[in-house]
Amino acid sequence: xxxxxxxxxxxxxxxxxxxxxxxxxxxxxxxxxxxxxxxxxxxxxxxxxxxxxxxxxxxxxxxxxxxxxxxxxxxxxxxxxxxxxxxxxxxxxxxxxxxxxxxxxxxxxxxxxxxxxxxxxxxxxxxxxxxxxxxxxxxxxxxxxxxxxxxxxxxxxxxxxxxxxxxxxxxxxxxxxxxxxxxxxxxxxxxxxxxxxxxxxxxxxxxxxxxxxxxxxxxxxxxxxxxxxxxxxxxxxxxxxxxxxxxxxxxxxxxxxx
Length: 258
Known about the structure:
The protein is mainly alpha-helical and 258 residues long. It has one domain (31-256). The protein has twelve helices and no strands. Helix 4 (63-90) runs antiparallel to helix 9 (170-184). The two termini are 28 Å apart. The mean pLDDT is 87.
């Protein structure tokens, strides 16, 4: 762990450049630039809220905020893991020319997605203000489940980036899985409408715990419970160490396939 931290410090400027490059690439030739990070979740929230609050009439107080807290978190997960999955392949030319710790590429992608997530926070603040939701100090505790979620996404990203080098079909398969997860995770519907026979499946979804903890802080304005944060911690740590193990085991052979 000590050598890992030392290596991160050694390459901190490279990580910074990779993150800046990813952000610039995302907003290249965009007139509004990072403003889209605020407009996009707001527009999606408005359209989705109109559809689901009208057709399904979910009994959720302050549905726009409930919906937006789920959307921004799921967007971060989908973007960070998708970007991390392609990071090794896209940087194959650089990896073949010079020595760079290969894990820096998926790491920088997850960090850049996290920066994009923070760009969307003004949209959350606008909805909180517009709906009259009172601010509480407990809302600041959102950083705890978010930090754990970052570790989880990094672990998943390391696994996916490794698999994608050997199996290009992962890009198509993961696209299907993302669609399934978007419906299997309580993003636009309340947990209480899930039939009892499917509750176990809901709780087997690792995203469920992070979303619940994040919403407790931002939507409910209370501190996430210790057992919930414990679940999030276990899931994040397990995903991270599995990701590190898989990535380290196969990284020396990447150059033969990229």
